[in-house]
Amino acid sequence: MKKAMIITVGTGRTGEDIAHAICLSIKQQNPDYLVFLKTRETDERTMPFIRNNAILDQRQYQEIELSSPDDIEKIVVECHAAISALSKKGYDPQDMVADYTSGTKAMSAGLTIAAIKGNVGALVYVTGEKDDGGRVMSGTERSISLEPNRIRADGLFQDAIRLFNLYQFDACLEALSKAETLVADPVFIDKVKALETLAKAYMSWDKFQIAESFNLLKEFKKEIFLKEWGIERQVKNNKQALYTEKENKFCEERMVDLLENARRRGEREKKFDDAIARLYRLCEYIAQCYISWRNLYMKTGSDVDTSNLDLSSLTVNIKEKYEKYRDGKESRVKLPLYASYDLLLDLDELPGKYFFKDEKKTKKLLGLRNASILAHGFNPVSEKVYKEMFLFMEEFVRKVVRDFEYTRGRIRFPTLISP
Length: 419
Fold this sequence. Notes:
This protein is an alpha/beta fold. It contains 19 helices and ten strands. It has helices at 16-29, 40-45, 47-51, 72-88, 105-117, 148-165, 169-180, 186-206, 210-218, 223-228, 232-247, 252-268, 272-293, 316-323, 337-346, 350-355, 359-370, 383-400, 404-411; strands at residues 4-8, 33-38, 60-65, 96-99, 122-127, 142-146, 297-300, 303-309, 326-327, 332-333. The strands form three sheets. Strands 3-2-1-4-5-6 form a six-stranded mixed β-sheet, sandwiched between helices. It has a two-stranded antiparallel sheet with strand order 7-8. It is elongated. The two termini are 38 Å apart.
């Protein structure tokens, strides 16, 4: 495995002292190829001592004079170019070492930044006992090595937390996958795996895969991380809500769940057509719940058939009114949205009253949804329309859910606290 090393060259007190430290670092790292980043001054004062040292025997090396040793931006560009050139020579960035011990502060900072951006495998720095002038005394030098991969892994993990909080679960999982490949620390990997499980659970929930989400949270055993991220109580509440939804097709929790799902699409993702589609489904679902709770759907085995209304328990006048919705081919009574709420109004149920309280407004909002490209039309939904319909449906859910704020608190996705 070929190894390359990039070194910033400073002047020190005499030039020879810095050359000694650099040669010691070269000996410890034992690279096949060297790149010296120098200035005009260090070319004259320090490089001669390095060139004459036996450490360079049998080694290939290159000297690059930096154009502006005090301009970090230019140095980053030139260091990055040096790293790219080494890659083209066949050196893997993970097999490169960047020594930023000497040179101007801008040189050290520039090489460090370029090394991290370029995925260089290690950063090294030579230190030791210092004299009154703050310089390392010859003979006391020792090399300290840092792994940029850990820095990158920690950065990716923080990105994953941010993406989780934005409900971008696919991107969160991608960041965690990259972080996992960078370090072998079992404690870090354990934390990555824990967040992966949570991201998969809430991604499933976001896609209405209720049973899968519940099972993932139920089997989650890393409560220590839930405490660290400040979400222990919220996850517990979420599991309770998911269990209720899993066991009950028609429940208040699912009403609020649909509302919250629409909110995430609209507020966070600005996908207003998607949000409106969910709000329309919520409107349908509320009617289905109340009709089901009145035992007015035909049963298929242990389940109810929402596309087949049972007219037998209705009064004669109501029964005749809805007989016209019977499908001649299948002999099913299939109620469209308006007819479902008309039935609830006839039954003196709250949803029917709310739906027709301002019938003009209701028809307007549902008509705008029907014009959406995701429904029957070709018009995109505007943010204004989304907000208007969201407020309408939020008020609707508040009317029909007994303890709306409590239920919403159990449905809301957690927000991780970044440690």
